Amino acid sequence: MSCSTPEGQHVLRTLTLAPASRRLRLSVTRVLGGPGETRRLGRITKATDQLKCASINSSTVHTYPKKFQHWTAFCEEFRFPVWIDELSQESQARIVGLFARMCSLEGHNAHGKGNKYQTFDGKMAAVAYAHKSERNARLNYKSPEIELIAQGYLRTNSHVDRKQPVTSPMLSEMHRLLQQERSKENGDQPDPQWGSVVSAFFCLDRGSELWGPAAKVRDRYGSPVGPGTGEAYSVEILFRSHKGDRVRQGNTIRHYKSGQGVIYFVTTADTCFNIRKRWKADGRCLDPYLTSISMTTMIKKSDVAKLIKKAARTQGADTNNFSTHSMLISGTCALLAMGKSETVIRLMGRWFAWCFSVYT
């Protein structure tokens, strides 16, 4: 049925859309007026909350309430409003500036020691997240006024606990020490620990405790292969998240085979996956992370730090100059020495924080 006049076409469209509109109203009535209305709405509400939680990693969400408590305690002590989204930029900058000064002087710890800039940045991220989740308000704590305060914090705090990067000879020495410690009691334990060291070096991180299992291990033709076959040419690792990294969470990092022998990420990762496969076949339950050794335990950063200090001691270096932070900066310094672009390094690593400007 058709009509050539505009008035007739309008009547036809109205008659055509009327049944659809009536069906839509009936569907909505059935959904909201049925006996399972409460249960359905409950499921929808729960699913909505799950989507909100999925927007940021759970390990980050767990640290935010504690950090936000520091902000509320500061506001209550000085009688400032906890929610500052409706204040002017000048008032926000004044309150955040006082909070930054208190963090740099006292922090929130038993020793009364000032916080590093990265800790302060994490606290402000928790404040912004609380404003977004509780009041649906976007708090721009990166405004020019607050950025000026942050730069001052950065400059006065950048000299604190500066560590030395781990060099290639130190990595080789760490591998040698781990091989010496291999015994029947610890079995394959040195291999995941070495995997934690190598992944931190190549992925520009402190450790591998947040690196998930490989999405795929591929051969040189791009076909998936199993661990332990000796055909691994590239490996893809899922980065779960770090409490201070709200940018790279959920990203997949791919590394390819290189000409190195011991310091070789693809082979090391393939070894870790092969060990995981054997452990699971033996009935051991493991976390989904790369260096997990049980359902609740992974290779600890403290163990990696002890290994770094032990290698430094054997090479005659001061152990106080090394920690797991040395792994974070060592890969970056190696890339800079090779002439790689600073932009590429910033995109690859977690260098939105103060580290890059301090060590480069």
Automatic annotation (TrEMBL):
Biological process annotations from GO: DNA integration; DNA recombination
InterPro entries membership: Integrase-like_cat_sf (IPR013762), Integrase_recombinase_N (IPR010998), Phage_Integrase-like_Recomb (IPR052925)
Transmembrane segments: none
GO molecular function per UniProt: DNA binding
PANTHER family registered for this protein in UniProt: P CELL-TYPE AGGLUTINATION PROTEIN MAP4-LIKE-RELATED, PHAGE_INTEGRASE DOMAIN-CONTAINING PROTEIN
Protein name, as recorded: Uncharacterized protein
Keywords on record: DNA-binding
Top-level lineage group: Eukaryota
Record's keyword annotation contains Translocase: no
